[in-house]
Amino acid sequence: MALGLARLGSKLNLDNINPRLLKAQYAMRGRLVLRAEELQKQLKAGKTLPFKSIISCNLGNPHAVGQKALTYPSQVLSLLVNSQLLNPENLEVIKKIYPSDVIERAQRYLKGIPGGIGAYTGTKGLQMIRDEVAQFLEKRDGFEANTDNIFLTAGASQGVAFWLNTILRSPYDTLLVPRPQYPLYAATITLNGASYTSYDLDEPTGWSVQLRDIQRAYNQAESEGKRVRGLTLINPGNPTGQVLDRKNMEELVMFCHEHSIVLMADEVYQANYYNPDRPFISFKKVIGEMGPKYKNGVELVSFHSCSKGFLGECGKRGGFFEAVNIDEAVMNQVYKMGSINLCSNVIGQVLVGLMVNPPKPGEPSYEVYKKEQTAQLKSLASKAKKLVDAFNKLDGFSCQQAAGAMYAYPSINIPPKAVAAAKEAHMAPDEFYCANLLEQTGVVVVPGAGVGQKDGTYHFRTTFLPSETEIDDMVSRIKVFHKDFVQRFK
What we know:
This protein is of the alpha/beta class. The protein folds into 3 domains: 19-66 and 371-488, Alpha-Beta Complex (Aspartate Aminotransferase, domain 1); 76-119, no CATH class; 127-356, 3-Layer(aba) Sandwich (Aspartate Aminotransferase, domain 2), CATH 3.40.640. The chain is 47% helix and 12% strand. The protein contains 19 helices and 14 strands. The longest helix is centred in the last third of the chain and has 27 residues, at 366-392.
């Protein structure tokens, strides 16, 4: 007994903390990123390295690599944070600095936020913001949106976690997730003690989602004695940049209906599509237009965020989800889960309102807002094409065009001797490649092993968020490195 008590009282170590935490992985902030931070410190300290700067392409974190915040939302938020500026004695001065629609928007929000932005809101978030979200969804999709089923969350990630906690009950429950995938899903599922089953995206056809691969994953899960509870679809895709077409989406909707599983639509990149022939279409719109059988029968949860698109406001943690055709009793349990967290960041909630309800034509802020929006999206489209085209000119590289999102996911040929060297270093071959790339060039990317890939293939995920000049510099560094790497392990 005394020995048992001593064990219970021992200091925390890797043998006595939650084993699920040890098992969970999140490659976007893995050991390569930690090493990049060390190298950054060395550069700042004046140490001579083979490169003069770190180029961070591991995270979809636009402002961290130089993207400027849009003027309109920044102005409204500044008045909300320092609401004394809207006091009568200050208004005349403020009117000389801020456009009238900014002042009116801030005043309206303050009137509808009891206690101001420093107070808790209701669990689902501010009613007036959820009303704006509902109007946005109705305009986007052409179908009614119920504000009772809209929750404002700390980015899309919190909403995803809520629903994974809700639908996955045990190791025998599984979620179908894409391979490659954004590792939020794998990590959160692992922490929950449940499981996921991967379906492969089809690289030769631009990383499309093939129904045959979904069915194969479903059959595999059932053969292992698991119950498939949901299907995750990331559209536009992360890390692959594909944008689904309507016919494909209809097939996936029918699959979910046939098997009575929840369709989890990660649509946070819906503003990021670069091919006018392949625009973003929401799953809610597709389901609604397929007729009453699907409109009233398919369980759908869709997610959106302020972190991506052209806002890029990752740090303000604004997002939302809409639940459709989910039983009211289940929604009450999701509400309870949200209540445990009290509410999401109120600044993030307001930013959601500003995202879904921007300035309208004729309002004072509209022209500047539209100009900034257009410039951001045009720059992303230009950099996406530039980066992918550059990759496809390198020997041993192959990269599908990024039709959307913020990432390219090139396939790379790694020489057998490099594969052997990686094994000796206890690293996956593409992690070994990316580690060498970092040490020799300062370019930080995410190995394909961290986001999933077919066996025997090697990739890395990179953003195309840095400036045009940095993208050129990055390509030059990778070109020189790759030639040297292949020569070294020839």
